[in-house]
Amino acid sequence: FTGAVSTHRGRFEQANGGTLFLDEVGELSASAQTRLLRVLQEGTVQRVGGSKDVPVDVRIISATHRDLERRVREGLFREDLYYRIMVFPIALPPLRERVEDIPLLAGHFLRKHKRAGTDVAPIERDALDVLCRYDWPGNVRELENVIQRAVVVSRGKPIHVDALPPKLVLAS
Fold it and tell me: Given CA atoms 127, 94, 89, 11 in this order, what sign does their dihedral have?
């Protein structure tokens, strides 16, 4: 392709012999679905600008928040691709149905987003209670964003309710 000066291994080649996670597979365009199906069926990829098929052996794990069966019925998702990726489906309930996971996930995100060179400040009981009562329409991603915000607002101090977004506090 124009401007190419070296060979670039794509994600499938980089994952060769391992596992590749495809997030939001339900959002793939029709052309991307076709290309993914080809890789899954034939076990080969073609580099951008290339003409040779390169063999790949990749285990695929995919996720989506979409109802893929409905998208197949609506003609928005390829049925043949659906059956290729639905080998071992795992249904994960939304966070609001897994309240017991909130403290563990919040702790994980707290460690992930702590400021460099600082200790992890705890999430105080009052804040944790608000987190556990909230409905989480944005699921785990929303929880991560809330914890990231709380880390910034609390500036290394223990996280209390006042470090949480007002809409969470008001909704609880």
Answer: negative
d(CA 49, CA 1): 5
Nearest to 136, CA basis, from 162, 106, 107, 161: 106
Count of alpha carbons within 13 angstroms of residue 64, beta-carbon side: 17
pTM for the structure as a whole: 0.73
Per-residue pLDDT tens, the chain, 172 aa: give them: 455 555 678 899 999 999 999 999 999 999 999 999 999 999 999 887 777 899 999 999 999 989 999 999 999 999 999 999 999 999 889 999 999 999 999 999 999 988 766 777 899 999 999 999 999 999 999 999 999 999 999 988 999 999 999 999 898 7
Give the E-state strand segments of the chain in sequence order: 19-22, 44-46, 53-55, 59-62
Cα dihedral: 5, 7, 10, 16 (round 10): -170
Q: How far apart are CA 106 and CA 112, in angstroms?
A: 10
Picking from 92, 42, 41, 30, the residue whose alpha carbon sits closest to that of residue 62 is 92
Q: Which amino acid is at 160?
A: H
Whether the CB-CB separation of 96 and 55 falls below 8 Å is answered with no
